[in-house]
Amino acid sequence: MSDFETVAASENQAARRGPSGEPGTPNQVGRPRKPRSLAGDAWRDLRRKPIFWISLLLVLLVTAMAAVPGLFTSNDPADCVLSRQHAAPSGGAIFGYDFQGCDTYARAVHGARASLLVGALSALFTGLIALVVGMLAGYFGGWVDAVLSRVIDIVLGIPLLLAAIVLLKRIGSDSATVRVAAVIFVLAVLGWTTAARVVRSSVITAREQDYVAAARMLGAGNGRIMWRHILPNALAPAIVVLTIALGSFIAAEATLSFLGIGLREPTISWGIEINNGRVHMRESATPLVVPSTFLALTVLAFIMLGDAIRDAFDPKLR
After folding, report:
1. Domain limits at 253?
2. Is the pLDDT score of 3 beyond 50?
3. Distance (Å, rounded) from C-alpha 219 to C-alpha 95?
4. Do the domain assignments include residue 11?
5. pTM of the model
6. Which of 148, 165, 239, 269 is the 20 to 30 A CA-CA neighbour of 232?
7. Dihedral of CA 129/135/137/138: which sign?
């Protein structure tokens, strides 16, 4: 065999082996590697984190509890009999009864709906405000950025809970719909600044990319560039911030309702239940502990989920 034939045979034998040197199939030779994306890398990182699955499970559990409370309890939270005041657990009332003879567990389960609704809608409207303000400030820059940045600084300097107390004090209506809408409005108007800063930073980075310059050279207008090219890059970090903010909004609603300024009875909310349980804590601590535990686990779940997603999307932490 000539030297040329020897070299050719060696190359063919090497080509039939896999990337690690093990024998492979001919189909593996020359197969292009699939490009890795940021979302794919983030998902691979998230799948290996137990904290992500634990927090996601808790979030799904609370969401199901708010959407279909009948899956978790068959007792009516409005079925209150004074003769059962502070009675021990019995039947479906696994945590006993409160000072009004209501099922403590049933009221905690049904309280998830109002608390989660306020938190989710507050986060949604907060995200819309943050996207508009952040994209305008980051994309146009100049005096637009200067004015909107000063507005962000002013709103950021207003204490959220203190301002919410002052504004909600002006609401004289006891209508459940009005109170829910007022709490959502106040939290959204006062809580969008952090997300807006994150969006602004992402837009500033994205507008300098080559694909934005290419779209501008092809005649794309500002609206099209912002919608098609800038917005997708600003959504991911905004969603992470809003996931964490959702937990904070749920805690803020519970605080306002606890103080008697947010939601009011007959609406069932964790904050209202915690306040009622506090008043009669000496007779029985269960009506205080149960809704407090539900609230703490829900807020913690959203914050942990947001932290896990943020770490997965941050290349510096890899």
Report:
1. 48-313
2. no
3. 66
4. no
5. 0.81
6. 148
7. positive
